[in-house]
Amino acid sequence: MKTSWTTLPCAILSTALLLSGGPVSAGGNSPWSVALKHCIAAFEKLNPVDVSELSKVKAPDWAMVDQGDTFAVGPDVFMTVHGEINTELASCTVASKGAEMDDSFESWASEATDMGIYGPVDGEDLTHVETIDWREPRMNIEVVSKGDVTWIKTYEVDKEA
Known about the structure:
By secondary structure, the protein is of the alpha+beta class.
C-alpha cells in the first residue's frame, strides 16, 4: 500500500516542472526525451503515465523488464509502465537499443541536484538520483547501459521524504 504524499511548496514544484520541460536534444523520440516527457514529468506531477497515443506491444527480449505493459515509442525505443501511481508504487522504464545517451540526462541531473530537488543515491554518481524532501514516496531516476541497450528507469521507492 502506498504512503501518503507530502505537500510540495509551489516554488519547488514549479522549479521541478521547469526541469522536466526544458529543452532536450536528439528529438521527440530519443530515449531521454521520451523518459522526460512520459515518465518523469508525469511522476513529478503525481499523474499516471499518458499512454493514450501509444501502441501496446510485446517487448522484444532486449527491452524486457520485470513487469508491466510495454508500448512502442519509436524505432528501437520502448516504454514499460507498471502500477497505478495513486494506489501503489509505480514505475516507468524506457528501453532503447543502439541510441547512445548524450549528456542531456547528466546535465539535467546536475541542475536538479544543484537546486536541491534531487540528490544522488550513491555518492556523487548522477546516473541514479532520487527526489529530496518534496515527494513521498521518493522517486528514483536511474540510467543503466549494457552493451548497446540503455534503460532509463523512473520508479517510486517505499522511502519517506
